[in-house]
Amino acid sequence: MPDREDVAYFGAGPAPLPTAILQKGAEAFVNFENTGLSLAEISHRSATANKILADTKAALTSLLSIPDNYEILFMHGGGSAEFSAVVHNLVAVWVEKRRRKAVADLGADKDEAVIIEKVKREVRESLRLDYLVTGSWSLKASQESAILLEPLGTGFTNVAVDSRESNGGKFGTIPPENTWTLTPRRSEGGGKGSAFVYYCDNETVDGVEFPHLPNCLDQSSQDKDDEMLVVADMSSNFLSRRVDVSKYAVIFGGAQKNIGITDVTLVIVRKDLLSSCPSPSFLHAVGVWSPPTILNWSIIAKNNSLYNTMPIFSIWIAGEVMRGLLHTHGEKGLAGQEALANKKAKIIYDVLDHHTDVYQVVPNTSVRSRMNICFRVRGGDATQEKTFLEYAEAQLLQGLKGHRSVGGIRASNYNAVPLKNVEKLAAYLEDFASKSQEPSK
Questions:
Q1: Is 0.85 topped by the overall pTM?
Q2: Closest by alpha carbon to 83, among 262, 284, 202, 253?
Q3: pLDDT grade, residue 441 (50/70/90)?
Q4: 59-106: per-residue pLDDT in tens?
Q5: What is the predicted pLDDT for the residue at 437?
Q6: Pairing status of strand 265-270 against strand 70-75
Q7: In whole angstroms, what is the distance from residue 77 CA to residue 210 CA?
Q8: Short-list 340, 341, 332, 403, CA closest to 374
Q9: How far apart are CA 78 and CA 66, in angstroms?
């Protein structure tokens, strides 16, 4: 039976965790700090649990330099649940802006029925949600939006770019920004803007990563009624590079890639958005669903993420991972982790690019993911790829099979994948390429 240190695991999620944290977690799961209780047993409302939440928030704040006007939430459901939460919460914010403007225009003493009718008309005519579809997860997010807004009709979800359209029907590129059809704002020629712009920073399935925040989204507006609310799903590259949180309205990510184990979703949301929701009755009156309680960011924030029973053990693991990054990189912080992630990715891509007759990287060079390295063997030859995976498994290189929806090979280079494992994979890639022969015709 192999030792843990003998296995090089490149699974896309759940992802590997540092062995030292797992060993510490094993102790905490049985007897946390000599309390006689497991972290899986303690009350989520206990002083111990509240301290774990506070310590984890503090570590995340330090890593990302999160400004004071942002709230950190711990939630359930992974990124998929946040696809719904984003729509529910930010459409409510959009409606509240229109309600306040209607009150200002018509007068506070105006009959509420008149205000409701005005806002209801604006919902029908002007509500738009912008999505940048660059891979499988952003596609799912846009589809969820369309489903949730279906009672209103069609056309409310605006796919501003679908990268398949310029890439032969497949994901693998990010088209130039000047081809995107974002909903115009008032400052851009009299438009009314969208409720938000969503994008997935790193597409786990397709190996596509935005090199940086798109330039057209890197804007600020003094007019809160005309600002662009940028929402980023960072589930699979969270804490792998520096991020200017102040440029985003919302950042979210599941923990099971770079942060910890499953059943924790982190949401970083601007605080003013938490107090900008109308009453459920007003939302229903204008034809919009109110956010379900368990996805309502305002309610979760008011309850310190403890509205219902949270997995304290999972949050503690996330905190340990964050504190580990702070300890490892010191004053460099995420700049140190970013440099390491880049170094590891380059080692693998350099080998793949050196043997283009054997390996073909899926995404365009300009948008290659540092976290999920997707490639084919001999152009996707099924026999060759099966052999590649079998030989890799024999050398304890595990988790390399591509997502079931696209096939191929995928090496996930998350934070906890050590450099020595990347070097082991690179050596195997070299060896397989040197031994590989053209498949028989």
A1: yes
A2: 253
A3: very low
A4: 999 999 999 999 999 999 999 999 999 999 999 999 999 999 999 999
A5: 59
A6: antiparallel
A7: 24
A8: 403
A9: 21
